[in-house]
Amino acid sequence: TEKKIKVTTGNNGGKFLFEVRYKRHTEGLHTKLFAKVPHPNEGATASDRLSTSVNKQPMELHELNSSRLLEATLPVKIPKFYFGDISNETSNFILITEQVPFADREPLDFKGDLVKRGERLGPLKPFVVEGPYDKCLDWTLRASPFEYYLTLVRAGAKMAGLHKAGKMGDPAVLATHFEDYSHKPMEIWGMQTGCSGTPPKQKQTMVDMAVRFMSEDGKAIFPAFVTDSGFGAKFKKTMMTLNAYAAESTYWRNSDQDYIALTHNNLNVDNAFFWRDDKGEMDLGVLDWGSMGQKCLGFKMWYWLYCSDYDILTAKFEDYSQCFVDTYEEYGGPRLDKSVLRMQFVLSAMEQMQGLCDAVPQIFKMCKKPLWKEITSRYDPRIGENIDGKSTLRLYLQVMSTVVRVIHEPQWKGDEVLEQWMSTFCSALGVAPKAQTAIFP
Known about the structure:
Blueprint: E1 14-19, E2 32-37, H1 46-55, H2 59-69, E3 81-86, E4 93-98, H3 113-117, H4 145-164, H5 171-177, E5 179-180, H6 200-217, H7 229-244, H8 246-253, E6 260-263, E7 272-276, E8 282-286, E9 293-296, H9 297-305, H10 310-330, H11 338-358, H12 360-366, H13 381-384, H14 392-408, H15 414-429, H16 436-439
Parallel strand pairs: 5-9
Antiparallel strand pairs: 1-2, 2-4, 3-4, 6-9, 7-8
C-alpha cells in the first residue's frame, strides 16, 4: 500500500508531493515531483495567506525566478525546476520541482525526547539526504547544530561573493528580477526628524502587550529576568527608540554597497537539505527562495541564524561571522569589517522584535490565553508542535526569547549597540538626535 506523507515544514505556502508518468520519457526527467501553492484564504490559514500574498509580495515571484533563472549559476544544488507561474490579479501561484529524496520521513521529535536522553540520531550513509528538518527544533539535527549553521553561512556567503564578482549573471538584469536594495538614494527611505516608524502611541500599546505576555502569561518559557521591572523599562526604551529610527536604521544598513549582495533571504535548516560525502564532509542543497535579492548582509545573516538556539548562536557567532567574511572575499566580494556586520545583525534582530511585539494577539489566537497558566516548557505540544501545519508559534516564541537576551545579556548588549549606532549615525549626518516626543507618546 502507498504510504501517505504529510508535508508540514515551512510557513509560506501549502506543499504536496505527487507522481507523474510521461508519454515520452527522456533521461533526466523525474517522476516524483513536489509542488508549492498558496495557503487557502480561509480558516486557520487565512492570516497566513494575507501575510504572504499581500504583506510579503513579490516574495513568490522572486522564488519562481530563482528556480527558473538561476538553476545553472547558483553555487549550490537546487531541485530541478519543472514549472512555475503566478497571477498578479489573484496572487495565486504554483511552483513544481523534483522531489528531494529525504530519508527521515517519520514525524520530528517535537517533545524533546532526544534532549531528555542526551542523544542525537547520528549520521546516515554517504550521499543519503537527511531530513526534512524544521525551524527551532535543533535537537533533531543528526549532528552538532553548529556544523549545519556554519554550512548554511558558507553557502550564503559564497552566493553573495559570486554576485559581487559578476558570476551570477548580469547585475542589471538580476536587479530587475529580484529584490534590490542596492544604490537607492537617501531620499526614498522616509527619514525625518520625527518618528519614522509606527506612530509612538500605537507602538507603545504593542510593546506593553509584549512585556505583559513575556513577564506574566508566558514567563515560564522566557528568561527569568523578563519579570524584572528594570528589564521591562530597558526593553520598552529600546523598542520605542528603534521604532523612532526605523527608516534611518534601514537606510544605514543598506547604504554601504560593500555590505549588499544577492543571496538567499532565509537560509534556515528547513530551507536546505543536507548529506555527507564518502569522507564524512557535510554538503547541502537549498530550497525556498522567497524574497531572493540584494539586501544588507547583516540582515541576511540574522535570518540565516535566528532560529538557532541562543546559546550556540552566542558561543559561535564569531566563527559564523569570520566564515562569512572570509568566504565572501574568497568568492569575489570585498573584505568586510566584522564589527559593522555584527551591528547590522543586532539591529536586524531587534527590528524583527518589533514585528513580534505586534504578533502577540496572533500568539493568543494559536494558543489561547487561559492555557498559558498550564504551560511550563517549550516542549509542551500546545506550543512546541506545528499548529495548523506551521511552525509559526514555536518560531515566534523562540525568537522572542533570543532577542530579549540579545538586548539584555552582556555578550550582546543590544540596547547599548542601538545607542552607539544612533550616536555614530547622527554625527555622520550632522543631525541632532531625535527628541523624546518623537520616541514616546
